[in-house]
Design brief:
Elements: H1 3-16, H2 20-35, E1 39-46, E2 51-58, H3 65-69, E3 73-74, H4 78-81, E4 91-93, E5 114-122, E6 125-134, H5 143-189, E7 193-197, E8 203-206, H6 208-213, H7 219-223, H8 235-242, E9 249-258, E10 264-276, E11 279-288, H9 290-335, H10 339-362, H11 382-386
Antiparallel strand pairs: 1-2, 1-6, 2-3, 4-5, 5-6, 7-8, 7-11, 9-10, 10-11
């Protein structure tokens, strides 16, 4: 086989064999046959571990196999930087054991007579090498064979560059898939409703939390309705859209929505308007604040009750003192009256006692109850508001 045929054969291997290790093994075989070496091995740099490792070999004697497979060389050690592996050109020797250029310890792990190092580099850094061995024969290389092996090294550099680019592409792809999976998991499991709609109200997407919050059977059932039908007050959707800021974002918009079972739920909505190509969308989140609203309403009622009770107690105190004087004087006056006069006085006494009972109710307010027959202008029902609650 001539030099041109060797390069063509190697080019065919590199373009047809997808597995890097097998491609290197086949190349080592062809190079060993071409130069007549007795053994050949291929090394490549493991960039994560920062070591030069053997990956393929051809015609390795059994006694040398364990040493060859364990020959892992740290590329950051000073000795490696001064070795032939880090050189940019092919180096050969017909007396390896005594050649100072082959002083690196790897060459002395298994005694042999002749050797050739074919390094290949990527962007100025060593990426790998071929090592060819003649165990007992003194083999000298002429310039022609050296040039041919340098061309092989360039081909292998292209192979490793392609492998590195492929590995990097796969790493980035794996990272992208992992990021997509994390995002998908976040959207699927976050306890907040996430939605995307069109300006007309078509629901394009919603996560499981929103489906559950609005009590729909499944996502498809929610997507089959129009978002405008979810608003208890139909004007609230447009009002929330008008509240967006300069960045197109509506923040902390509280609105009451209908659920699929006929009940309602209060939500806090954060949404933004965006454009995707020629289409406008509205996407955002909703958080169930029904319990918070109930708690806030209860607190407001409690505040109102405290204010009313304080006012009622103050009024009762102010009224009770003069009323006690009036009732006492009426009782004294009634003793000196005839029966007919007492009968005329009794309604006044009874009315005074009724006022006293009202004042007692005012001092016992525990809740706010209004008169049912006055819906337009609610008035406090003192009797019901002061009755003990059933527990």
């Amino acid at each position: 086989m001539g030099g041109a045929e060797l390069l063509i054969t190697i080019a065919h291997i590199l373009t047809t064999e997808a597995d890097l290790t097998e491609a290197l093994r086949l190349v080592v075989r062809e190079v060993v046959r071409f130069v007549g070496a007795e053994t050949g091995a291929a090394y490549r740099v493991d960039r994560e571990r920062r070591v030069l490792v053997p990956v393929a070999a051809y015609r390795v004697p059994k006694h040398a196999l364990p040493m060859l497979t364990s020959a892992v060389l740290p590329i950051d050690e000073p000795g490696f930087r001064q070795s032939l592996f880090a050189e940019s050109s092919v180096a050969s020797s017909d007396d390896v054991q005594n050649d100072p250029r082959f002083a690196f310890e790897l060459f002395h792990r298994f005694p042999h007579r002749s050797g050739v190092v074919v390094p290949f580099h990527i962007d100025g850094d060593v990426a790998g090498a071929l090592y060819l061995v003649w165990w007992e024969r003194a083999e000298r290389f002429d310039l022609t064979r050296v040039s041919m092996l340098e061309a092989v090294g360039q081909q292998l550099a292209l192979l490793l560059r392609s492998a590195w680019l492929h590995a990097e592409a796969e790493r980035q792809r794996a990272e992208a898939l992992a990021a997509e999976e994390r995002y998908h998991s976040l959207v699927e499991h976050v306890p907040v409703g996430i939605f995307r709609t069109t300006p007309s109200g078509e629901i394009l997407d919603a996560n499981p939390a929103m489906v559950e919050m609005l009590k729909f059977k499944d996502r498809e059932a929610l997507l089959s309705i129009n978002a405008t039908s979810l608003y208890v007050n139909p004007d609230d959707r447009e009002r929330g859209y008008r509240l967006r800021d300069a960045a197109g974002v509506t923040r902390d918009f509280q609105v009451e929505l209908r659920t699929n079972d006929g009940s309602t739920v209060w939500v806090r909505m954060n949404a933004r308007a965006l454009r995707d190509g020629a289409h406008d969308y509205w996407e955002g989140t909703i958080e169930d604040i029904t319990d918070q609203r109930r708690a806030d309403d209860a607190e407001r009622r409690a505040e109102t009750l405290r204010a009313v009770a304080q006012l009622a107690n103050a009024a009762a105190h102010e009224i009770n003192n003069p009323l006690a004087v009036i009732v006492g004087r009426l009782e004294l006056l009634r003793r000196d009256l005839t029966a007919d006069q007492q009968a005329k006085l009794n309604p006044i006494v009874e009315s005074s006692r009724q006022i006293a009972r009202i004042i007692t109710h005012m001092g016992r307010l525990t809740r706010l109850e209004t008169l049912d027959d006055l819906p337009a202008s609610p008035m406090l029902d003192l009797r019901r508001s002061s009755e003990p609650t059933n527990t």
